[in-house]
Structures are given as C-alpha cells and as structure tokens.
Amino acid sequence: MSLITGKSKTPKYKIIAEHLRLQISKGRYETGDALPSQQSLMTEYGVSLSTVRQSIKELAVKGMVCAEHGRGLFVTDRTNAGEFAIVIRSKRLAEGVSAYHRLVCAILAEVLYDRYPGKQARLHTGGLTQRNGSFADTLDLLESHVLTHLSGVFALEKIGTLDEQLLGHGVPVVSLGGNYSTRYCVDFDNEILFKRGFEYLRKIGCRSIGVIGFRNAFTIGVDVMSSEQEQIKMLERGTNDRRIGDNGLDSVEDIGYQIMMRLIEQAERPDAIVVTDDEVCKGVLRAILQRGISLPNEIKLISHANRGVKLPYHLPVTRFEFDAKNAVQNAVEMMDKLLCGEKPEAPHVCISPDFILGDTA
C-alpha cells in the first residue's frame, strides 16, 4: 500500500496501527465491527504477518481492538468496557488519617458504577518504595495485562512521567488533589484556609495566629504568624515538628494532640489556631478539652473539615468545609470528555471550600 514506503523512519507496524486507528476514529469501523483478517491486512499493506501482529498489539494495548478466539478482531469501545484505575497509597486509606481519600475512593467507585456499568473501578496502591525510588515506579499501570484493559486513571498521588506515558497509550489521567504535574487535575483551593481564615481572624482582633498541619507527607508541625509584621517565625521547630511513626506516634491525631499540648505550655500562646487537616484537628481538640481551654474565649480555632464528617467537639467548629463529592463529579466529567476525544474546558479545576461559621471563632 502507498502509505508504506522505504523512506519512512517510522516502523511499519506503527504506520499501519495509526492508519487503522484513524479509520476507526472516522467511523469506517464502528464499535463491534470486525476488522479484516490478519491475512487480508498482510495483503492490503504488503507486509509480513509479524508486522501485522505488532500493529494489532499496538491497537489492543490502547484498548481499541480485542481478539475473540475463533472469531477474529473486533473494534472495542473503551468508554463502555475495561477498567478505571484509582491510584492511591494504601496508608491513606487507613483509619487515623484524614477521611478525604476514603471518601473520594468510595464516591468515585459509586459514580463510575452508575455512569459506566460495564466497567470496573480498581484500586492500585503500588508497593514499598526503595531508597531514592518513587511511588510511581511501584505501580503496574504500564504492564500489558493491566494496560490492555485500562480506560482511564484517577490519580490521588503524584505519578511523575507515568502521566505522559499513559497518554501515549491513549489512556487519559485525571488527578485529584494538587498533582499539577499531570495535564488534568481537580483540587481544592487550600490557600483559602490562610487567605480568608486569616482575614476573618484579624477582623475579630487576633494579633497572632498559629498554623498546625502537614509540612510534607510525613511531618506535622506548627508555625506562628504575627498578623502585624506579616512574617512567619518558627516556635522551636525541631522540638515541635513530629514525624509520623516517631516515638511510637503512628496516629496523626496523637501528633496533633502532642503539638497542641506543647503550644498550650508556651509562655505566649497565639490568639488563634488554624488547623489544616481534620484528623490533626481531632488531636488538637482533645488537648483543648483535656486542658480545659475555653473556645473561643481563651483561644480561637478554625479547621479544615470534610463535608459529612463531624469534628469531635461539643460546639460547632468554625471550619472550611471541603466537599469530596463535588471534586469527584468534576473529575468524572473531565474524564468523560477525554474519553470522547474532547478537551475539558479547563485543564485544572480549583474548587473553593465553604466557610462555616461555628462557635469556636
């Protein structure tokens, strides 16, 4: 066939695979249609059987065709068959960490089941990372037995170059939660905790504000900001920072408790506390109750919260409430467009949380 020339640097099997892909995209072969036999393709393109088989494998890996034993090759619809991968570290699903990831996974599975009843949603939690290794290296998404059936990926972790590699195989990736290294992402505007939270606290007269939360994936610490000087200064950072697992403290709540107890013991307490993680806040509130601190009279508190998950305090907590269902709906709508070959209106969607004025600030 004329499209195969000796001058092209592109391998013959890739040229044939791309030609067939375009024919499928343009509707010459529709979902469920049989492709010509391997013998017919050999004749049509003037190539060997091994080249034809490589071309078919290329299309099969992208989920565009499938072989049915004894019947031949058929065009598949990756929007109605296959699997969605939900990428997340297993430790994020454990009790004792923020409920956000558990909520997202549960809602994702439910929404995908309703929208794509012929598909499965499966967790991919990777494995243990080696020193200087990355979590993405432990994932199996590029292995042929997974990739062949993969329709799309929802990433709740950073996956590095896997994003581009998967896109190269025709598998779209949508991230949830600040993974801006991917092309398409849905996240919450966490900066509002600081911008609107600080603005409100200053408005009601707070001169210094403590911030308790994660510094990275493993360490929780505390900073105190002077609302007058607009500067952050550390309070004995080496002493107050706590790494998960240090000194037997495996619970995020326990670390929040210990940091708040140390903060209460400071000679000068901040006027207000902003807590950037709901599980950390449970420990902070436990310390406040144990020491008999009156909110908001002695100290004011604003926390991150997940909609539908109550914080353990006898008064309504002033909070910025994040809606996991809203994030999932945006991510699935983005995936819908990508699977149909359309570009989402915005590659990065940032959702603002709701400010709920309670009795703690």
Task: Explain this structure.
- The chain is α/β, with parallel strands linked by helices.
- The protein folds into three domains: 12-75, Winged helix-like DNA-binding domain superfamily/Winged helix DNA-binding domain (Arc Repressor Mutant, subunit A), CATH 1.10.10.10; 82-183 and 325-351, Response regulator (Rossmann fold); 191-316, Rossmann fold, CATH 3.40.50.2300.
- 34% of the residues lie in helices and 22% in strands.
- The chain has helices at residues 12-25, 38-45, 49-61, 100-115, 144-147, 162-168, 191-203, 237-240, 252-264, 278-290, 324-339, and strands spanning 65-68, 72-75, 82-87, 119-124, 150-155, 173-176, 185-188, 208-214, 219-226, 231-234, 242-243, 272-275, 300-306, 318-322, 348-351, 354-356.
- The strands form three sheets. Strands 8, 9, 10, 11, 12, 13, 14 and 16 form an eight-stranded mixed beta sheet that branches.
- Strand 9 and strand 10 form a beta hairpin.
- Helix 1 (12-25) packs across helix 3 and helix 2 crosses helix 3.
- It is elongated, with a radius of gyration of 26 Å.
- The model is unreliable at 227-249 (pLDDT under 50).
Key structural traits:
Rossmann fold, 361 residues, Arc Repressor Mutant, subunit A, 3 domains, 8-stranded mixed beta sheet, 11 helices, elongated, single chain, alpha/beta
Nutshell version of this structure?
The protein has 361 residues and is an alpha/beta fold. The protein has 11 helices and 16 strands.
